[in-house]
Design goal:
Length: about 60
């Protein structure tokens, strides 16, 4: 019985932490979604992709 109560308390605590994190998160997470600078700079991504293409093909 004590193990079940302990597991229920642990699950309730984890759920409470997730709820608090959800309530305190920003409403516009676009900054976090664009953390990769290569996705923001299309020209730089093309230059690096072209360099990788030439290195792989030995040209």
């Amino acid at each position: 019985m004590e193990k079940l109560l302990g597991r229920l308390l642990l699950a309730a605590g984890c759920f409470a932490i997730l709820c608090v994190l959800g309530w305190t998160s920003t409403e516009n997470p676009s900054v976090a979604l664009h953390a990769n600078p290569l996705k923001a700079s299309h020209e730089q991504d093309q230059r690096i992709s072209a360099f990788n293409y030439y290195v792989r093909n030995g040209n």
